[in-house]
Amino acid sequence: MTAPVGIFKDNKELITNGKRSFMRQTIVEKILSEHCGRKAKSGDIVIANVDFCFGQDGTSGMIIDSFRKMGVESVYSKNLFCMIIDHSAPSPNIGVSAIHDKIREFGREQSVRVFDVGRGVCHQLVPESGYVVCGDLVLGADSHTCTYGALNILSTGVGSTDLAITLASGKNWFKVPDTMKIVVNGKLPKGVFSKDVVLKIIGDVGADGATYRAVEFYGEIIDALSIDSRLTISNMAVEMGAKCGLMKADKKTLDWLKRRSDRTPRPIEADMDARYVDVKEYDFSDLSPQIACPHAVDNVCDVEDVLGTPINEVNIGTCTNGRLEDLEITAKILKGKKVAPGIRVIITPASRQIYLDAIKEGYIEIFIKAGAVVNNPGCGPCVGTHQGVLADGENALSTANRNFKGRMGNPNASIYLASPATAAATALVGKISDPREHKRRL
Amino acid sequence: MSNFAHRLKIQNDINTDYIISGRYKFKIQDEKELAQYIFEDLESGFYKKIKTGDFLVAGENFGCGSSREQAPVALKASGLQAVIAKSFARIFYRNAFNVGLCLVECETNYMDDMDELELDLEKNVIRNISKGVNIEIKPIPEIMRKLLDKGGVIEYFREFGGFKEIV
């Protein structure tokens, strides 16, 4: 269903006339109300039951330490929690090996599930394994936990100690955030994808434009996107400071979840006259492929502005763009071709299932024949600990979500962010290239 | 004893990767050792300037990005009394109070590097002794004050067994 524009105008009038209805709620207000047992509105502080929580290998060591310090014998529920070894996996050094060992040991002791090396990125494994459904409240000790907002789930990142509190009690405290509504209308041109949509929005809103807020995404373009593409948008909600990036559940959402989970989804929609602190409307029918330039995610421009920038390494994968659809787009562009001489092209499927599907579809063979490197499923070179650390003065073009100085392991290197299509087009020529040149293949 | 302000060359959007790089947070579990690498990618050796009780002063959106709790842990272990900024990112804000690191929101334009500061959480003011001005701070929310008073959320949880006392 298309979000009707008239209602947003009514909303604005509702706010400006001061006729704010306290009964009408946004998605985040409804989900937190359901989980705390009373009607919650923005600004309230509530104690809520958490449906699922997890940690990854960069945060679980501290989760375990905090849990031990709390003096609690066992986890609140062993089905509530899992740990995923994805950020530096397999281990690149002794320090990381010790952390991995500690995670496995805690998993055995508490009978909680550990996804070990090679299973994939936490933000693919958690929804893919059927742990979470619409209407859930989910915490992850990783900032990109906001990813499952695309599945109508209130999921947000917290630190290790916050996660340990939930691990011990099944609960945590929340401040109910204000909600900002972002409406994306039009029809995306060929060669332009959901990554371009979210980069454009972040460039407009800014790195702190949604701090302390929930975001709800609506519009014709969101409705038309696949679940894989929607996950890319919600994944980057935190890059504008948001607590979560929510979408409503439609048939695609419910079908996707039904194939993966035994649990019953509880789709949550915002009330028609819910209160929004801000409403932004875009028409992206003429959008160009977008690039986030060094060293800030909101330093965004059209691809035309940076065409020809030399690139030493292309990174395709991560929790933002390592899903099957992303690999399909990459394969369409690389098929039968060779990557540019001297460039390193590193491709990392987001999960073992995606890796297997990509093998079945023939994508992996295309990548290898084109001269790319295929990593084991996981976070790949995104976090700068292994599998593609940059040299001084080098430029990378990555499909990840962060381009902070030093992010890929070297503070004297630069990172550009873009869609898998832009990354694949760039891989073929060794400099930033426009994927619309390949639109016959897409 | 006098306590001084420290400012980095960049002021806004200082993310947690900059506070403590992934290169160190993945392999170092000792917080004192971790503290030696704060801001390593921005200004190598920055930690050497900090004496116990000093302040870090920054602009907007301090602590954005990754949820790594090593960021506030390393800042606290470096000896900082508080981080003073115009605004903070959400996850970092929770993490800091959870581990007992004080964050103060206020206008930071009137604090230069190495200004002598005094923080008064009772009167909600920072006295800039070097400049002879008082700067009003945003009162720390009650829930955060309670966590801070106990030394962090774990200590709080151990004492009360939950959050009933907070909400």
Mean pLDDT over all positions of chain B? 94
What is the chains' assembly state? Answer: heterodimer
Largest sheet of chain A: 5 strands, parallel
Could you tell me how far the N terminus lies from the C terminus of chain B, measured between alpha carbons in angstroms?
37 Å
Q: Find the CATH topology of the domain at 292-438 in chain A.
A: Aconitase, domain 3
Using a beta-carbon cutoff below 8 angstroms, give the protein chain pair with the largest interface and the number of residues from each chain.
Answer: A-B, 54 and 44 residues
- Terminus-to-terminus distance of chain A: 26 Å
By CATH, the superfamily of the domain at 292-438 in chain A comes out as Aconitase, domain 3
Beta-strand portion of chain A reads 15-25%
CATH architecture of the domain at 292-438 in chain A: 2-Layer Sandwich
CATH superfamily of chain B: Aconitase, domain 4
- SSE pattern of chain B: EHHHEHEHEEEEHH
Helix content of chain A: 25-40%
Roughly what fraction of the amino acids of chain B lie in strands?
Answer: 15-25%
Weakly predicted, low-confidence segments of chain A: 1-22
* Count of helical stretches of chain B: 7
Largest sheet of chain B: 7 strands, mixed
